[in-house]
Specification:
- This protein folds into two domains: about 90 residues; about 30 residues.
- Helices cover about 45% and strands about 15% of the residues.
- The strands form two sheets. The chain has a three-stranded antiparallel beta sheet with strand order 1-3-2.
- Strand 2 and strand 3 form a beta hairpin.
Length: about 140
Amino acid sequence: MRSQGDPPPPIHADRLNGWKDIAVFLGKGVRTVQRWEREYGLPVHRLGRQGGEIVFGSRREIAEWMRRAERNGHDGVSHEADDSQGLEAVGSGVTGAAPEGVAEPRRSARQKLGVAAVFVVSIAALVWLVLRFAW
């Protein structure tokens, strides 16, 4: 119970303001936590136009998200270490799918564009070969 001389608790004691606070809370870099939000659904909230100018998180929500990952045998959230080896858990050396309750990574726009470019070049080469030898 709080005595009259004690200051009131902070209104947003649970709140992490911005990517830097979230990264420090998780002990990771800003780019890592941004990737976790994008690929694995790290719970962050956005305010502002188009929902992205102000980013904040809840210590409680993020801690619960990490507990779900750890409960499933991972020391942290999975990340793409090498496409040929699939997903690797941070710090644990465990490979496999993302932890239960954490979304599988989505292909980035750059990856999709690369696949589309390879497809178009392959089709163009095939058409060129067919037309070249058909004459």
